[in-house]
Amino acid sequence: MTLTSHAALLSNGSYPEQCTGDRIPGPAANSTELAPLTILIAVPTLEIGAADAGVVDLASMLVELGHRPIVASAGGRFVRELEDAHIACVTLDLASHNPAVMVRNAMRLQRLVRQEHCDVVHAHGRSAAWSACLAARVARVPFVTSWYKGFREQNLFKRGYNSVMARGDRVVAGSTQIADLIVERHRTPRRRIAIVPGAVDFDRFDPGALTPERLATVRDAWGVSSDTRTVLIAGRMLRRKGHHIVVRAAQRLKAMGVKNFMFVFAGEDQGRSRYTGELWDLVLATDTADVIRMARSGSDLPAAYGTAMAVVSAAVQPEGVQRSILESLAMARPTIVSELAVGPDIVLAPPAVPEDRMTGLRIPAGDDEALALALVRLFAMPEPVRRAIGRRGREWVLAHCSRTQTKEQLQAVYTAVVSAARIGG
Questions:
Q1: Least CB-packed of 28, 138, 164, 414 within 10 Å?
Q2: Is 34 helix (H, G, I), strand (E, B) or coil?
Q3: SS3 breakdown of the chain: % helix, strand, coil, rounded to 5?
Q4: What pLDDT digit, counting tens, does each position of 237-253 carry?
Q5: What values do phi and psi take at 121, rounded to 5?
Q6: Whether the Cβ atoms of residue 347 and residue 337 lie closer than 8 Å to each other
């Protein structure tokens, strides 16, 4: 059965009898500790963001492990990337928050689990997780969730909605910070949580591979000179990322008389122009338009990191492990993060570690004065000291975020849940 026909069948919620037993083609299995599995991955969209990009990485790693992923989502630009890798994609409105749609999606996912003999259902994102959880329970297959960041819990309804991410037979957390948050909010037993940091493509994010031409191209696009102290704020233009804190820090730096610096916001707003508009209003109100650039991230992210003297994340909500932070460390950039941007196990900073082990600086969330002072400290450092900080950051990522390590950790998660299900069954 072709990929297109699967999508069409799911759109009306039924499979014709002649399709019984027909399966989506999968890759040939390699030798692994666990027999080859079919894993249904459910994600709201495949457009942008940690969950979306994480699914692409997960699916490709599953293929490398010899397993067969099937990705269900509402679609998006990453679908083409998956299809080019011969990974099956099925379209469902898993981004919907409508309870009736969620139930209907659960029924369709449950049929897909049985039709394709799926061994595990792995959910990324809350709206998809509710449908996936119900489908997995009805089909009696293990249910796994991946938790990338700390969701806001303004009220009991929101806490209940978020709780589905803690209902997996295993909950994959991107960092110790997120694991602690899951335990605190949902009393999830530690034994059910697996901490699996994201994998970094070290071939792509390699400072040694940068050329002067690539760096010059990025500088020209940003309108900055080679001697400008450029600070990159990577990631999407979302309020929780704290771009407004950076604007106020820029205002403080100007008031201190600091010269020759530029903040570059290199991220997309996903059509959420309201926050971007508020940022522009704040930039004008603080008279910082001369030291702030708003630019698309561009296709050459490694060169964007390489052009920057430092990378900043001023997140005001728990963010888990941002891909941009791992990439900046891999590119040997000193990194300044808020206490909510990433856990202390990722960016090593005094006083938790000695100066000769630091990979960046940490500041209280929402504190623009602390951010300004951290930047002043970084600007004042001799170049060899900044290089040493960056080098240690890359060494840390190389030691903890390799693709091989991540695959081994994911394999352990699937081995645990499938083995437990077979013993219990």
A1: 28
A2: coil
A3: 50, 15, 35
A4: 888 889 999 999 999 99
A5: -115, 125
A6: yes
